[in-house]
């Protein structure tokens, strides 16, 4: 029997999914997790009442949070993913054949549930010999590691509950310490039409630690409210402003197909709508 499941992210607005079958529902050590079937979006995962991923549109977010920093860097060899337990970011990162990836996820159960219920998200990436999966606190990892990474991707939940510590000035400073000389940090940063304070707060906390800090946009259908933003930070002041021709040369050399990301979308994503620009100081 079907039931309607509401997303509870916003106090004054909700979206609902018709669940034709609830596949898994449990409160884990860290989060409330539910996975269900929807006739349009396929399988849907929600954590703490917030939509995390769906079969139908996951490629949009995963491609943009992964390929934009890697293509912009141009010579990335080592990538660190914080979070990303569904495996989608890992899958996209490992499409770049020269990259070794360390993934730090706090909740092993999210990884196991994703491998079982969302196998196409990871598409075998967890078993790839170039993946080093670490079940640990990402905050502690970046504080203590002696490794240096060319790209750090923070695929976290919103700044509530366990994900809150991944939006602090201390965390951003530790990420900067873990980056190579021309390294790039990219983080999930919400939907500014509804969550404008997140973009303002992130800028205030992140920008003191990097020479260049900005945002880029991506339109994910189930992250309602128009564009979502991804925060960008680097001490390489040229990485963000490269031409379509340069990015296209790297994309062609990478030798794989995408469903959302293109070199033109890459470059254009950094042109922010005016209502987002007004949130920046």
UniProtKB/TrEMBL annotation:
Keywords: Polyamine biosynthesis, Spermidine biosynthesis, Transferase. Spermidine binds at residues 62, 86, 155-158. It comes from the Bacteria. GO terms for cellular component: cytosol. Pfam families: Spermine_synt_N, Spermine_synth. S-methyl-5'-thioadenosine binds at residues 31, 105, 137-138, 162. InterPro entries: PABS, PABS_CS, SAM-dependent_MTases_sf, Spermi_synthase, Spermidine_synt_N, Spermidine_synt_N_sf. Residues 2-235 form the PABS domain. Its EC number is 2.5.1.16. PROSITE patterns: PABS_1, PABS_2. The active site is at residue 155. Coiled coil: none annotated. GO terms for molecular function: spermidine synthase activity. It catalyses: S-adenosyl 3-(methylsulfanyl)propylamine + putrescine = S-methyl-5'-thioadenosine + spermidine + H(+). Pathway: Amine and polyamine biosynthesis; spermidine biosynthesis; spermidine from putrescine: step 1/1. GO terms for biological process: spermidine biosynthetic process. Signal peptide: none annotated. Catalyzes the irreversible transfer of a propylamine group from the amino donor S-adenosylmethioninamine (decarboxy-AdoMet) to putrescine (1,4-diaminobutane) to yield spermidine. Homodimer or homotetramer. Belongs to the spermidine/spermine synthase family. This is Polyamine aminopropyltransferase.
């Amino acid at each position: 029997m079907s039931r309607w499941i509401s997303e509870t992210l916003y106090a004054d607005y909700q979206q609902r999914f018709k669940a034709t079958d609830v596949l898994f529902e449990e409160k884990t050590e860290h989060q409330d997790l539910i996975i269900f079937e929807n006739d349009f979006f396929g399988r849907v995962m929600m954590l703490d009442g917030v939509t995390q991923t769906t079969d139908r549109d996951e490629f949009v977010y995963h491609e943009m949070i992964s390929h934009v920093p890697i293509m912009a860097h141009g010579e990335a060899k080592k990538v660190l993913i914080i979070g990303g337990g569904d495996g989608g970011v890992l899958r996209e990162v490992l499409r770049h054949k020269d990259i070794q990836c360390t993934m730090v996820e706090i909740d092993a159960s999210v990884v196991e549930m994703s491998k079982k219920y969302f196998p196409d998200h990871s598409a075998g990436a967890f078993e790839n010999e170039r993946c080093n999966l670490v079940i640990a606190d990402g905050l502690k990892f970046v504080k203590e590691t002696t490794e240096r990474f060319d790209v750090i991707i923070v695929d976290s939940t919103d700044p509530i509950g366990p994900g809150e510590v991944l939006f602090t000035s201390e965390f951003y400073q530790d990420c900067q310490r873990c980056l190579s000389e021309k390294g790039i940090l990219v983080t999930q940063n919400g939907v500014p039409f509804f969550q404008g304070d997140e973009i303002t707060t992130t800028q205030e906390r992140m920008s003191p630690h990097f020479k260049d800090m900005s945002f880029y946009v991506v339109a994910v259908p189930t992250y309602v409210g128009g564009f979502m933003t991804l925060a960008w930070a680097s001490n390489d002041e040229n990485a963000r402003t490269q031409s379509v021709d340069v990015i296209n040369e790297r994309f062609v050399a990478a030798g794989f197909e995408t469903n959302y990301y293109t070199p033109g979308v890459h470059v254009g994503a950094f042109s922010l709508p005016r209502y987002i620009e007004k949130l920046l100081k």
